[in-house]
Amino acid sequence: MTTRPPTPSRRTLLRAMAALPASAALVGELPGTALAAAPPSGSATRYTIVPFLNSNDGTVNVYQSDDATDFRLLKSSAYTPPSNRIRDASVLKHADGFYYLTYTTHTWQDVSTTIGFARSSDRANWTFLYDYTVPIADLSRAWAPEWFVDSDGSVNVIVSCSLTSNEWIFTPYRLRATNSALTAWSSPVALSGIGANHIDTYLVKSGSTYHAFTKNETTKYIEYATASSLNGPYTISRTGDWAGWGSYREGPSVIQLDNGGWRIFFDGYGDGSYYYSDSYDTFATWSAPTALPVISGTARHFTVVKETVSGGPSPARNVTRSFRSANYTTRYWQNQSSLLNLPVVTGSSTSAEKAASTFTVVAGLADPSGCSFRDSSGAYLRHWDFRARFDAHDGTSTFAKDATFIARTGTSSGSIRWESYNYPGRYLRHYDYQLRVDPADGTDLFRQDSSFVPVTAWA
């Protein structure tokens, strides 16, 4: 029996999720990043994280996901550095095609004046490159180095450093790579305006503005600052529990999702969980923090690489299809009194039943890289209170987003998982033979329940 996950009300989530116009343009943290969109047909989005373990800071695991929510283990104990210590690893996909890690080289109790570097061609197998001594006089600790690639292509590391005069007061410094091999670095420059007593500073750039997310070591809250220049001066404009994430949070990492929204990940070290939260108004408001399935409680302090890779599903548009459950192979999507259910459909089913199990796949109403589904009456499949139903298009952007789904790879050959466009991490899935849009819980059962095979239309 499938277990129903808890479902917050639609109204609650809508309050936390500002509407994002389909035409809005956002610029991500990597050069050339424009409006985020679903991956092209035949391609897939891939997110990679390389956290150290809550139980072991001597090695890192590698996980990947196609939706930034449901992370699956790619390789355990993928890299153990010569020092046998690796914390706070930050991962980069460099212009040379290799993946790079930079990381803290010692435990939090030790004096640590170096940051480590490693490289991989496949994300699974890593080679130690070198430990770099950060050239700051009277340095006590160099912690939590974070990659940042500016819009001019320059590669930087933002590292939190403290002095021997006060080893627990950290200030963010910028190191800029002076060669393409990432082996030579400019002199450290403190980020102006963020100031001392801040750690784990993570930067993204949207338009011409630099956005910094940084932990205040006194209050244990993640604060927010902006600047017009990478070096600053930054203005900290959000303090305390401004985003509703709570305290004893650290290690923020921010990426842009396929639907243009922004997601922050952070380590809830105070309660042993790992969280994410989403913003659709460029960091002004955020959804309630949600624990990442599977890896929460296991993973510690990571950053995220987002890529578009080949091999994703290629759903055809402007065709009629029926959709069969991947794990209940006699059951199909069917419009029953405007609700989408999963009854048994066979060759002996009535013509009306076959017609109600036939849909036209069209380009997504909110994003043509996604898909929308239309029945014979012209109504569209959309979610309402996270129940799948068919309604006439009312012309609003909210309806278009509710009726758009992103194709993700399913559990069996030819199957597709359909992720909600405006509620990332929620998938069309069956429960008690009803179709819902529920949050992925990381289990194989959920992935099977949310996998459907497009087949020749019944009608």
Could you list the spans in which at least 5 consecutive residues all have pLDDT below 50?
1-34
Rg result: 23 Å
Question: Shape from CA axes?
Answer: elongated
N/C terminus separation? 31 Å
Binned strand content: over 45%
Which structural category fits the helices and strands? mainly beta
Number of helices: 4
Task: Kindly state the percentage of residues in helix.
Answer: under 10%
Summed over residues and divided by their number, the pLDDT gives a mean of 91
Major β-sheet annotation: 6 strands, antiparallel
Q: Say how many strands there are.
A: 34
Features:
459 residues, six-stranded antiparallel beta sheet, 45% strand, mainly beta, 4 helices, single chain
How does this model look, in words?
The structure is a single chain. By secondary structure, the chain is mainly beta. The protein has four helices and 34 strands. The strands form nine sheets. Strands 1, 2, 3, 4, 21 and 22 form a six-stranded antiparallel beta sheet that branches. Strands 27-26-23-34-31-30 form a six-stranded antiparallel beta sheet. Strands 5-6-7-8 form a four-stranded antiparallel beta sheet, with no helix packed on it. A hairpin with a 2-residue loop joins strand 13 and strand 14. The longest helix is centred in the first third of the chain and has 7 residues. It starts with 9 loop residues before the first helix and ends with a strand. The relative contact order is 0.14. The N terminus is likely disordered.
